[in-house]
DNA sequence: AATTATCCTGACCAAACGGTCAAGAACCGG
DNA sequence: CCGGTTCTTGACCGTTTGGTCAGGATAATT
């Protein structure tokens, strides 16, 4: 719907450094505001007016930078997918299962903590049937899962861990970690806390690591490997 | 906003049996349709027009029965909370931990399976910061959790299970089971399945039971208790 | 058959929706 | 100081929003 704007209309600036600084600042502000609003109300429920107010700009300005509501939404999803893809990108059969799973749980937990709005935005998209992400789910992400699942299976064959279904295991880790971003309101309401601090998150991470690793027949790498 | 309609305007019918049969049918239809639409788009994103079309009725008729969008939404939430409350309502310290946890996982999984739209409706509400449910979360549900947490702790004290934090454990079970309703689109996209059949659900339930129970130092009740 | 309560719905309303546009303001290297 | 680009924004458009209402259709009670 909107061409990515030619880097420079005439052959004036190849660096494009000092130029576009306003654009960068405003786009950053708009993206942050939009992430909050989309996360809270979903795609349909979010209004450009609300996003604009959250960003402290007139609605027209939001459209000037983002083209349309759909473009803005897609841009946020893509940004979140990039953060996602950086996770656990290089593991091999020769790695230690316990270490890998611990790293997986830890980094996924950190992702939920560092980008709670992005996590909720993603969750809302899936909840609504993933109209924008279906292709990604059944393509790129599916291959990502299958590759890791194969490694888990090989670990099981070598007797390094219990022969559990690797896909369900990945889903278990996803859901358990995602929960603390997506259901934050529930967690806070039930625990009575005002927010989850670093100490809480570390405690939860330790709990999840302990239970899930033990549940797969693994010993945490911090403990003596025997 | 809308009074619960006097059972009978005059003192005509105390049974109110044959009367109101149309109302029951239409309300059931509307509630089912609304649950789907609210689950998909959240409170703000759902439109009465869409709900009416889904129910095969004119918009005015939906408002005639439900009063307002807010009333309809609250009614759906309350219905879902009732299903919720029926879960694991009577456990005691003298029960077998493994049996209780297995029953918990199983019944929660069944709830997600039998009422996926209700599950997603609930998830969307929490995702949006639980504007309608905050009171319930920090009141009734909080007490529900605390009561069960206390029992888990006593089991741990008696050495019947590992001394894990009981609240995080409850959250783990919630998230892992809820996942298959809320993130159904993701699960289907990644597994490549068209839907999750009974066999799949049983398999997942068995996986979760196995990993979580073992992770807490419990042996599944189906196996020999030693 | 008359009456009354319930059910049904098209027409209508003000507000909010996503999006367009033109005209001006601010900034830029030359 | 100039000419061109980028930025800013209020006015505006057609559509959709949640909700009201009057009035006709239907069914139940007497």
UniProtKB/TrEMBL annotation, chains A, B:
Keywords annotated in UniProt: DNA-binding
Q: Which InterPro entries match?
A: Homeodomain-like_sf (IPR009057), HTH-type_TetR-like_transc_reg (IPR050109), HTH_TetR (IPR001647), Tet_transcr_reg_TetR-rel_C_sf (IPR036271), Tscrpt_reg_YcdC_C (IPR013573)
Q: Name one GO biological process term.
A: negative regulation of DNA-templated transcription
- Entries under Pfam families matching the protein: TetR_C_3, TetR_N
- Can the keyword DNA-binding be found in this entry's annotation? yes
Q: Name one GO molecular function term.
A: transcription cis-regulatory region binding
Q: Where is this region: Disordered?
A: 1-26
| Keyword flag DNA-binding | yes
Annotated region of DNA binding: 47-66
What residue stretches are annotated with the HTH tetR-type domain? 24-84
Q: Where are the transmembrane segments?
A: none
Protein name, as recorded = TetR/AcrR family transcriptional regulator
Record the organism: Halomonas campaniensis
Q: What does the record give as the organism's lineage?
A: Bacteria, Pseudomonadati, Pseudomonadota, Gammaproteobacteria, Oceanospirillales
């Amino acid at each position: 719907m909107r061409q990515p704007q030619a880097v420079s209309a005439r052959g004036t600036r190849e660096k494009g450094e000092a130029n576009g600084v306003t654009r960068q600042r405003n786009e950053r502000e708009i993206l942050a505001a939009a992430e909050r609003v989309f996360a809270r109300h979903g795609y349909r429920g979010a209004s450009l007016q609300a996003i604009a107010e959250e960003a402290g700009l007139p609605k027209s300005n939001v459209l000037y930078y983002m083209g349309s509501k759909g473009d803005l939404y897609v841009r946020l999803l893509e940004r979140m997918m990039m953060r996602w893809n950086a996770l656990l990108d290089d593991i091999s059969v020769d790695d230690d299962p316990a270490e890998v799973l611990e790293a997986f749980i830890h980094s996924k937990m950190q992702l939920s903590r560092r980008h709670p709005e992005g996590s909720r935005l993603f969750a809302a998209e899936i909840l609504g049937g993933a109209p924008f992400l279906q292709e990604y789910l059944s393509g790129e992400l599916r291959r990502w899962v299958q590759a890791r699942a194969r490694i888990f299976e090989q670990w099981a064959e070598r007797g390094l861990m219990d022969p559990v279904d690797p896909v369900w295991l990945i889903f278990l880790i996803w859901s358990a970690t995602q929960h603390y971003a997506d259901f934050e309101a529930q967690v806070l309401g039930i625990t009575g806390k005002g927010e989850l601090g670093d100490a809480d998150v570390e405690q939860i991470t330790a709990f999840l690591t302990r239970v899930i690793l033990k549940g797969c027949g693994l010993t945490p790498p911090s403990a003596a490997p025997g």
